[in-house]
Design a protein that fits this description.
Two copies of one chain form a homodimer. By secondary structure, the first copy, chain A, is α+β, with helices and mostly antiparallel strands. Chain A is 21% helix and 25% strand. The first copy, chain A, is built from five helices and ten strands. The first copy, chain A, starts with a strand and ends with a strand. Chains A and B meet through helix 2 and strand 4 of A and helix 2 and strand 4 of B.
Chain lengths: 242, 242
């Protein structure tokens, strides 16, 4: 099932501890109402508190005979308005939204102006210094390719293998909105936010492309490789072999 | 001063009764903190609860010597994040944001799909039936020109003179988002929402262009001239002779 959500009111996508609202929990509650049973919902990604999704995938198994195509409309009558089910389809048994995912695209929205757009409050990160998007996209190419991203991940990660392949990294502008778009076969914990935070420090003139390359090679994160706030981050698309 | 706000959390733009949050009240509070005095804030329009503004004007008089250009940034540190001051400038004494306004443009956002975009919840009105924007724009031309808009206003209006001049009415589509855009020298109470509600009933096949013309001529509102919900309405631009 493909879903879309505003992450502001959720403590991330996956259930962490009782009492914390998560997108996964909201779906399990809605599915219970619609199907009369509570399936174990698998999530494509463990997004943080406040992170949004344009397109996010969940998978679950159920014996209840409901045509997949009808599920989104039925679920949307039960889900809170900041989460919507977009599409559903049958997949082979054993399919897992996270492990079967081939690649993902995240976007990060930066509002590049001294005055924030109130409609983007909590939905984009405000950054006042001017951003030269062409220069930043150029620098961002240091991340493209197969690299060890240990220096671009939080120490809280649980992944053993820190090698990932970034297929594309773009930085574009639409008026005052600057959009960072990155596609990879997988992402370490906080990896997108740290890459964006690093690039924003490059925009501030605090880091050069060469220094970022050095940090990547050293596999040791430095303070200037900051984590950009969650509010600007959106899981934008997930790709499956199906 | 030009401002922008998300109307969701406000009981309209103008102070109505004590204890109700309004945009005007938020500005008076912020101005008091910045200027050390509480100016009487004049609003360009009395928008309803839940109505938004891309650009809205307020005016006030103050003897405090603060350069107008610096006011927005100073005020934004005091205002709630769903209201932002965009620009400020000096105007001749006696200027009034409402009475000196030559014309205004409102837009109305309709999300035309069976599945709502969660990012537009409270910021656009969902309408499921297909909308033929070219056909609706054609019908909307019945409103363009100088007419008595009594049939397109709420009985709660306080205007004596119900004649207004609509300069332009457009209906356009960007994907699933349909935008109604109407510019006039002034609007009666609920006039935009009733014109849009009427056009949506035309999209449902419940009203023809001829019937709308008849209702306009009769000066008596009928039930099919419904008031579209506040959440889709935005004051988009205000025009002054300055």
């Amino acid at each position: 099932m493909t879903i879309r959500f505003v992450g502001t009111n959720y403590c991330g996508s996956q259930v962490q501890a009782p009492g914390f609202p998560t997108v996964q929990l909201a779906f399990q509650d809605a599915l219970q109402e619609v199907l009369g049973e509570r399936p174990d919902v698998k999530c494509c990604s463990r997004t943080d508190s406040g992170v949004h999704a344009n397109r996010y995938c969940i998978s679950f198994e159920s014996d209840v005979a409901v045509p997949a195509g009808r599920l989104p409309i039925a679920l949307n009558t039960k889900l809170p308005p900041d989460i919507r089910a977009l599409e559903a389809r049958l997949v082979p048994q054993g399919f897992h939204a996270r492990y079967d995912c081939l690649k993902k695209r995240y976007i990060y929205k930066v509002w590049n102006s001294r005055i924030m757009d109130p409609f983007l409050y909590g939905r984009a990160h405000q950054f006042v210094r001017p951003i030269d998007t062409a220069a930043l996209e150029q620098i961002a190419q240091v991340f493209v390719g197969t690299h060890d991203f240990e220096a671009m991940s939080s120490s809280k990660r649980d992944a053993e293998d820190t090698v990932r392949t970034v297929y594309e990294f773009h930085v574009t502008r639409r008026g005052e909105l600057v959009i960072f778009s990155v596609t990879a076969d997988g992402f370490l914990y906080n990896m997108v936010r740290i890459m964006v935070g690093t690039l924003l420090n490059a925009a501030r003139g605090r880091l050069t492309a060469e220094e970022i390359e050095q940090v990547m090679r050293s596999k040791k994160r430095i303070n200037l490789c900051m984590t950009a706030p969650a509010e600007g981050l959106y899981l934008d698309e997930v790709f499956y072999p199906l």
